[in-house]
Specification:
This protein is of the alpha/beta class. It has one domain: 3-Layer(aba) Sandwich (Rossmann fold), CATH 3.40.50.620. Strands 3-2-1-4-5 form a 5-stranded parallel β-sheet, sandwiched between helices. It is globular.
């Protein structure tokens, strides 16, 4: 017997981005989910991979405010790529973390009690981000919408209508 809860009512939607073309397409789907679920919260999560963090740690004493510089660059990306598309009424939040991307995404989903995770399968480092999406889909405790890069091609070149 099916439970009486309504599937697809997402209160907390987590969108993971690496600022790639595929992530931008996935954002459209995350935004649509937020619009279809009034009162939901759409959280953009960007994870700076740990190898980059290790690199930065070596220079932490040579460059002041490295974290604030990185944060400013990420905020600029968010403001140019995503904020212009967020309609009034959508509760949009942003979170920046450092660490292993798949683990950070999974940990944040638990911490935030996410109802849906939206992630692109192929990002800037296609094999790496593909592995992240696969691991998130495998271990998440909520539904995961994995958007493949091939969807972008289909989205931009829809098949002809059938009669």
């Amino acid at each position: 017997m099916l439970p009486h809860a309504r599937y697809g009512h997402y209160r907390r939607i987590q969108f993971c981005t690496d600022f790639s073309e595929n992530a931008n397409l996935a954002f459209g789907l995350a935004l649509e989910a937020a619009e279809r679920n009034p009162g939901s919260v759409l959280t953009l999560l960007h994870v700076l991979p740990e190898p980059g963090a290790q690199f930065w740690k070596g220079y932490i004493y040579e460059i002041e405010d490295i974290d604030s510089q990185a944060r400013e660059a990420i905020d600029a990306e968010i403001e140019s790529q995503y904020l212009p598309h967020v309609p009034p009424g959508v509760d949009f939040r942003r979170v920046f973390r450092v660490g292993n991307p798949a683990q950070v995404i999974l940990d944040f989903a638990r911490e935030d009690a996410s109802d849906l995770i939206v992630v692109g399968r192929q990002g800037r480092g296609s094999v790496f981000f593909g592995n992240v999406a696969s691991r998130v889909a495998r271990y998440a405790e909520c539904p995961v919408l994995v958007v493949p890069m091939a969807f972008a091609q289909r989205f931009h070149n829809p098949p002809p209508a059938t009669s």
